[in-house]
């Protein structure tokens, strides 16, 4: 090989993988955009059940990896898939997305006046088979809420697509959340500090 070609080969950095977000969440899309990342979105229906013996962070990590496995067969070698799942835990009870408004009200009645944990699990699956699964936890403190406040939130906002029937970024987050122990973005649905760290390790981002 000519010396010039050898030098070119040595100095050319490896191409970064193309990031693919497998999520319909507008909050996760906004967070990745705010990080300055280029990504595409890929969607399909994935069952979100989990084995009964799993608890807390195990549930979030299992669901994130389970979602990634559904996309794996169609992943190109130069793609890096990101999947995530957020759950709300009141002690060891997992409060997932409510089925209807009545269940949303019941969930919020359980959460009001108490502290609970939010876990977001993330799976990064590379097209070459490498996989990283992790989770992050934030403890959320709610002030006591009246039934009228809870019903107002359920009637005027969108609790049915959110774990625990609430979004920290909307009205109830402003009037009910008194304190966070951990990352606010984990509660929103993506622990961006951890995501950035892992993407750097995988060579997907850099400054």
UniProtKB/TrEMBL annotation:
It comes from the Bacteria. Keywords: Cytoplasm, Hydrolase, Nucleotide metabolism. Its EC number is 3.6.1.9. It is an enzyme of class 3 (hydrolase). It is found in: Cytoplasm. InterPro entries: ITPase-like_fam, Maf-like. It catalyses: UTP + H2O = UMP + diphosphate + H(+); dTTP + H2O = dTMP + diphosphate + H(+). The record marks 27, 86, 169 as: Important for substrate specificity. Its cofactor is a divalent metal cation. Gene3D superfamilies: 3.90.950.10. The active site is at residue 85. Belongs to the Maf family. YhdE subfamily. Nucleoside triphosphate pyrophosphatase that hydrolyzes dTTP and UTP. May have a dual role in cell division arrest and in preventing the incorporation of modified nucleotides into cellular nucleic acids. NCBIfam families: maf. This is dTTP/UTP pyrophosphatase. It comes from Hymenobacter glacieicola. The lineage of its organism: Bacteria, Pseudomonadati, Bacteroidota, Cytophagia, Cytophagales.
């Amino acid at each position: 090989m000519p010396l010039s070609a050898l030098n070119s080969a040595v100095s050319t950095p490896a191409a970064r993988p193309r990031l693919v977000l497998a999520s319909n969440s507008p909050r996760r899309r906004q967070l990745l955009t705010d990080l300055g990342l280029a990504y595409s979105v890929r969607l399909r229906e994935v069952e979100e059940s989990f084995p009964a013996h799993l608890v807390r962070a195990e549930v979030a990590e299992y669901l994130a990896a389970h979602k990634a496995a559904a996309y794996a067969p169609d992943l190109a070698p130069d793609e890096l898939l990101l999947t995530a799942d957020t759950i709300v835990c009141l002690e060891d009870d997992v409060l997932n997305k409510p089925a209807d408004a009545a269940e949303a009200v019941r969930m919020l009645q359980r959460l009001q006046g108490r502290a609970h944990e939010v876990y977001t699990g993330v799976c990064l699956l590379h097209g070459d088979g490498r996989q990283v699964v992790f989770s992050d936890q934030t403890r959320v403190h709610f002030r006591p809420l009246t039934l009228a406040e809870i019903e107002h939130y359920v009637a005027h906002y969108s609790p049915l697509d959110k774990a625990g029937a609430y979004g920290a970024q909307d009205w109830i987050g402003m009037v009910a959340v008194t304190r966070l122990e951990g990352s606010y973005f984990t509660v929103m649905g993506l622990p961006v500090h951890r995501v950035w760290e892992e993407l750097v390790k995988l060579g997907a981002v850099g400054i």
